[in-house]
Write a structure and sequence with these properties.
Layout lengths: L10 H14 L3 H12 L24 H11 L12
Helix pairs in contact: 1-2
Length: 86
C-alpha cells in the first residue's frame, strides 16, 4: 500500500470528505480514498491489504490522562533487546 500527501484541497472537498467520514463512521483517510476511487470509476471496496476499520470507533476517545498511561505502559516496547537477535 502506498502513501500520498495531498495539498491544496479546497474547502468544499474537505467538507465532502468529512461528511462521508462522519456518515460512514470511518477515518478521513478512508473517506478520501473512497471518493478518489469513485472519481476514477473504481469500486468502493478497500484493497485486500487495507487495515480494517474495526477500531475506528476508538479514534479520539482517550483522555490526555488515558493516553499518557498507555504511552507509559507501552514505553518498554520501544527498546530492542539486541541480545535476542544474536
Amino acid at each position: 500500500m502506498k502513501q500520498l500527501t495531498v495539498r491544496g484541497l479546497v474547502d468544499e472537498l474537505v467538507r465532502a470528505i468529512r461528511r462521508l467520514a462522519n456518515r460512514d463512521e470511518t477515518s478521513l483517510n478512508r473517506a478520501a480514498v473512497k471518493l478518489m476511487r469513485r472519481g476514477e470509476g473504481l469500486d468502493d471496496r478497500p484493497a485486500a491489504d487495507t487495515v480494517g476499520s474495526s477500531l475506528d470507533h476508538l479514534i479520539g476517545t482517550w483522555s490526555d490522562a488515558e493516553a499518557d498511561e498507555i504511552e507509559r505502559t507501552l514505553r518498554h516496547f520501544k527498546t530492542v533487546d539486541e541480545a535476542m537477535w544474536e
